[in-house]
Amino acid sequence: MNKMVFCKKLQQELEGLTSPPYPGELGKRIFSDISALAWKQWLNHQTMLINEYRLNMLDSKARAFLASEMEKYFFGAGSEKPTGYTPPLSSSETVT
Predict the structure, then answer these.
(1) How many of the other CB atoms lie within 10 Å of CB of 4?
(2) Residue 67 burial by Cβ neighbours in a 10 Å radius (0-12, 13-18, 19+)
(3) At residue 90, does pLDDT exceed 90?
(4) CATH number of residue 32's parent domain
């Protein structure tokens, strides 16, 4: 069993990560204060940001933007969805 942490994002005691998921001080903070569940939720949010903003991860500005959004997502007021974002339909929803 992994270590337990009080997740600052989800405000409850949950299973933590097995290693820092990101380099540097931000990665250390996430490792010590964020649960594996919250990290999984971030990965989904991050994917949406990359797709909606059409970010090129080879671009240092795009990587800096994501790092800033990650900081806000876990330790700030939250990372907002892009204006006009509409989530994809689930497999149980159909378009008629």
Answers:
(1) 11
(2) middle
(3) no
(4) 1.10.3880.10
Report the C-alpha gap between 37 and 23 in whole angstroms.
19
Q: Which domain holds residue 61?
A: 4-75
Tokens of 7: 């997740």
d(CA 22, CA 25): 9
Residue-wise pLDDT tens digits, 54-87: 999 999 999 999 999 999 999 998 888 888 777 7
CA-CA distance, 33 to 16, in Å (whole number)?
A: 8
Quick check: is 92 in a domain?
Answer: no
Structural domain tally of the chain? 1
Global confidence as pTM: 0.85
Q: In 1-96, which ranges are E strands? A: 4-7, 12-15
